[in-house]
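During the practical work, I worked with a single protein chain and the tokens that describe its fold, as given directly below.
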Amino acid sequence: VLSFIIFICYIASLAASFMMAPLLEFLLALFLFFAYASKLNEKFKGVHWPLADFLRCVTAAIIYFAISIAAVSKYSDGASKAAGVFGFAATIVFAIDFYITFNDLVTFLKQGSSDCPEGRKAEDEDSDSDSD
């Protein structure tokens, strides 16, 4: 929702060149929301969903911080200032989401790494290789 508000502010401002970043972030967040809601993360096991969400949070926080500084310092109209303030708020929200998602990602990777040695041992025992 915050990304959509920032997108609308940038459309109404002189800093309309920055409108693409919030739009893409909004669409990506919408896609991930529907992917989790429709259980796509359970159907497509090859995609590392926590990693995708983690990368989205990191890039969004960095991009929102950069364009917010540019919008507040370079443009003087009210809509640009509002977009910049909302952008700083979005930076904080995405940083918090980054922290939460990072903890989920660590848990996800620990579960994956505990399964790997058992799978490798089974593969090694079943191999007919004479390289020993």
